[in-house]
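Hello forum,

I keep getting stuck at the same step: I have a sequence, I want structure tokens, and every attempt I make locally crashes halfway through. Rather than fight my setup again tonight, could one of you with a working pipeline run this one for me? It's a single chain of 353 residues.
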Amino acid sequence: MEKLTRQAIELLHHLIETPSFSSEEEKTAQLIENWFLQNNIPFERENNNIWAYNKHFDESKRTILLNSHHDTVKPNGNYTNDPFKAFVEDGKLFGLGSNDAGGCLVSLLATFTYFYATEELKYNFVIVASAEEESSGPLGLKSVLQYLKNVAFGIVGEPTLMQLAVAEKGLLVLDVSAKGTASHAAHPNEDNAIYNALQVIQWFKTYEFEKTSETLGKVKTTVTQINAGKQHNVVPASCDLVVDIRVNDKYENEEILGIIKKQMPQCAEVTPRSLDLGSSSIAVDHPIVQSGIALGRSTYGSPTLSDQSVLSCPSLKLGPGDSTRSHSANEFIYIDEIKEGIKLYIKILEGIV
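Reply #2:
Ran it on my machine without issues. Output:
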């Protein structure tokens, strides 16, 4: 266990110092391949996704999916540290992707390796180190699900302070265009697209979807972008908005879209970017959740999106680190969080396998 933990922390140093923006993860994929090679574990790779099964895979048994991602967002402008320099200070390992989700990934790799050669397991294991999570790209986890064998449920490694995220909100992004009549600004115009957009924005600000989730709360709707006009003396024909909607597990994304289209003012055209990123959940009485609860872990609903959104099986989001540090300047994870994460992953899984 101690050797695996040291290897995991060393790998995380290398991952941090190897840029891996979404769709540009070739070099970190190689580092993950090296992990499997060093531990004599056969693996498969498609694009920048790498996966492996336990040594004594049994076709008659269901499979537990362990998953986390090795791509990162780009560092924001408020960094004072070098985002690609891994260093430890006051027990914190700093660097881009350390918290989201490098700490989770290396902890799951260590956990998988711990169980790899174990015989007579109740479940098989498959681990997938996936790409393009941060961009919800087409060549990420979703692209390799077709190859995975008989998955019963999944653990998705994201920073949760090793608490049990038993539900996760889905994401629906809308492009909304408020239409109007183009004209010279000097002349009367009662059909100004920007003014028409005000009633659209007000609708999104005040409308409350009826169904509230016990774990995920209400659907949250936020206008995040607005664009209109080319010059000061021209009234534009349209005012374009982007709307970010976090969908609870009481609604399908298609249902939310239908409600919005039915109630939008006539001036508005609504176009979804995708309907695929739905909410996720796992029953609190599921054995993996109960195993975590028995170890003192608490359950909650997560507002942030992960690769859970592409899974059709039940899935639990669980990992070392703190979601509030994700995408922040001078990102870090505590070394002790990784050590505890590996121990807890193993103990939770030992409770059911």
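Residues 44 and 51 are 5 Å apart (CA to CA). If your local run keeps crashing, start a new thread with the error log.
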